[in-house]
Amino acid sequence: MQFDDDAALDTSEVQDNRGGALGGIPGGGKTVGGGVVGLLVLVASVVFGVDPGLFGSDGTASSPTGTGSGRSAGDLAANCRTGADANRKEECRIVAVVDSVQAFWKQTETAAGKSYEPAPTFLFTSSVNTGCGNATSDVGPFYCSADDKVYLDLGFFNDLSSKFGAKGGPFAEAYVIAHEYGHHIQDLSGTISRGSGQGQNSGSVKLELQADCYAGVWAHHATTTPDPRSGKPLITELTQDDINRGLDAAAAVGDDRIQERYQGKVTPDTWTHGSASQRQQWFSTGYSSGSVARCDTFG
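Structure (tokenized):
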């Protein structure tokens, strides 16, 4: 995955509150997105995706805070100015992916006659207080519908390879982020309320598979979506290896793969995200079609 070296990055939609060393264990957030609170909870819970009730929120949205000394928005803006920075540094790549994903959904929602509402990504280390309550890195990347933010501890990307067996790489990271923004689209459209229960045919599984499909739709258009500031695509190249790594990441966080790895057996009646093959199938559906209409996992 390559970014336009000369493109200007917009860091205003990435809030950086990291402090100390990066680290964490994967998972999600209604919160919608991921989760591995302990191995068995990880297995039975979420990897990328859920909501306020999950973290024991009192129902009131609060301003997010993270542990550590934190870093100012100015620090991120100073380090991540151009696409060339995104090609060299992980944190800048996160900014560039967020810019690309939101640019795509903004033009897509507008074309559909709706107004897209931007959702910032909040970077933290170890733990964070959100509108959905307190969460740790054990929950993994997640989207909180109470405050319309995507939460991410960058340590998750190391765990994606070391604990989940994914090949990793820049596009594997981009897939995770695009999946979380898929939950934001579901929130805007009202679909997020349908994601409940457990099991192969549960609303939770269908919600997560739809977010995978939305991630694929973004990937289909990533190299042609114009950046609103320059009018040129921010992402200039996606290779087949990139897409393969995205598919590999999708499979690595399939419920069956996680359960087999950490439980030694597969229990489909407890699934909340779908199998490895289902996650790959729905990402592929979005990527090959480039059509939001093809992502009707509930139908």
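DSSP finds ten helices and nine strands in the chain. The longest strand covers residues 127-130.
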